[in-house]
Structure formats: C-alpha cells, structure tokens
Write a structure and sequence with these properties.
This protein has 175 residues and is of the alpha/beta class. The chain has one domain: Double Stranded RNA Binding Domain. Pfam families: LptE.
Length: 175
Amino acid sequence: MNWKISLVIALLAVVMNTSCGVYSFTGASISADVKTISIPTFYNNAPLGPSNMSITFTEKIRDYYLQNTNLVLVDSDGDLQLEGAISNYTLSPVAVTAAEDDSNIDLTSLTRITIYVDAVYVNTKDDTFDFEKTFSFFIDFDQDRQDLSSNEEEFVDEIFDQIILDIFNSSVANW
C-alpha cells in the first residue's frame, strides 16, 4: 500500500512541476523569456482632478505589476513596455432630486466621477499581445452625504485600482 501512495505523490509532483509557461495565482501568463517591464510616468492630461494623479497612478501601477508578477522594473526598453496618460477626469450628474417646492431648483443627488486612462502596451517577445486602448471606470457618490473635497482621494484611488486591474488583465493575463 505504501508504494502506491508514494507513486501517486511522485506523479503529482511531476505533473505540478511541468508547465507550458509561467503562471501565477493572479492569472498572469508570462512567457519564461520575459524578465523585465518598463513603466514610465503616466502624465496627467486631464483638465480636472487632483494635481497628484500622475504620481499616484504611476506608483500604483508599478507596484501592482511588481507585486503580482516576477518581472523586474527597468527605466526603459523592458521586455514588456507599458506607457500612457490620464486623459480625462469628468464629473457628471447621474440622478436629480426634485426640489421641495416650485420656488427652488432641482439638485443633483448623485454625481459620477469618471477617469479615462490611455495605455499602450508592447510585448517585445510576442507582438500579438500589443495594444493601444483607453480604460475607464467611475464611481457615483451622493453629494448630500459625501463631500467631494473630503473624499476625492479615496474615490480616485478606488477608480485607479479598477483601471489598473483592467490594464493588468489586458496585458499579462490576456483577458
């Protein structure tokens, strides 16, 4: 009986150590010959929004790739290259609250913040994965309950987290 258990364990070990590429628990599928990534600063070209969006987004996306892959960040000419810009930041009304009487104006109760990021991805080892896309995400907030100036940083961070996840999935997770 012991030799059967040993055989099963040995077979499982062989199967688990054999793969066609490098995979991770994050869903990343990166070829074994890809070692580096370059992510220059994503500049802020948006007319609105916090002034630190460029720094915040660039640091968050670099950190995300470093934490979720085995890639080494290089200044330029990485095996994978990701660059772009924050292209827009909009505030738009989503829901209107009716005024209590005809002498007052209707007000916006829900406002939507939308951020757009243009990204260019180049895989120098396999150009079939290259892309140039615009990614966006939004958050709705109730102006009666949440002040924009007090919560804007939190809203922007949440939007950036989703955009970074979308960029990651489009680039190295091949979704």
